[in-house]
Amino acid sequence: MRYTGSKCKFCRREGRKLFLKGDRCFTDRCGYERRPYPPGVHGQGRVKFTEYGVQLREKQKVKRIYGLAEGQFRLFFKRAAVAKGSTGENLLSLLERRLDNVIYRLGFSNSRQQARQNIRHAHFLLNGRKVNVPSMLVKKGDEIIVKESSRAVPYFMEVFQAISRKEIPRWLNVDTTSFKGVVTDIPSRADAGADIEERLIVELYSK
Predict the structure, then answer these.
(1) Domain residue ranges in the chain
(2) The architecture CATH gives domain 1-48
(3) Residue 205 above 90 pLDDT?
């Protein structure tokens, strides 16, 4: 059996790409492209889910996309529930504003997992100050810069050369010459950029 990578099984279970392996998902090496069906001997059969099962799968999918544990995800949901507006839309906006996600969206890392690792290694400055907490929430006007001492690292040199091939969200701006990204707006529901039915997550937690 060909190895498709531990994260590719999540895409195959969902029947869609979740882009958990960064640039690899855009190449012919993508495990989902080779085997677009759930793992296991019954992977190509028909599977029926209860209403609860559908809601749970949607929550698990979003957790995997953003790389969150259950406790972290629940805290974000509680924060979204007490904010004004739609709970589901608030939740996705908060998740998009996480520092690790912003760095991934800017193209400064090839995946959210790599972004978290790079943040913990203190490769970035937020508004001129060193940060090492991936879960920090950014706000409009924040500036994220790759530390000068990190710019010569081969990884970042390759990443910045590839930024021109990536689609940067409208609420972010990138200046590759100064290794800087700017949060120009607060992300909306449409900016989540994934096939997510947040309504199912709200229904699940409302039970």
Answers:
(1) 1-48, 102-183
(2) Orthogonal Bundle (1.10)
(3) yes
In the numeric block, which tokens belong to residue 30? 């993508």
The second-level CATH assignment, the architecture, of 102-183 is Roll (3.10)
d(CA 40, CA 179): 44
Identify whether the C-beta of residue 128 lies closer than 8 Å to the C-beta of residue 148.
Answer: no
Burial class (CB in 10 A: 0-12, 13-18, 19+), 41: exposed
1: pLDDT strictly greater than 50 = no
The residues, any chain, with a CB within 8 Å of residue 184's CB and separated by 6 or more, are: 140, 171, 172, 173
Spell out the residues 6+ positions from residue 51 whose beta carbon is closer than 8 angstroms to its own: none
Residue 137 φ/ψ, nearest 5 degrees: -100, 130
Q: Running DSSP on this structure, what letter comes out for residue 98?
A: B
Is the pLDDT at 36 greater than 50? The verdict is yes
**Is-contact 188 89, C-beta < 8 A?**
yes
Q: How far is CA 23 from CA 42, 125, 194, 196, in A?
A: 29, 24, 16, 21
Q: Does the pTM of the predicted model rise above 0.85? A: no
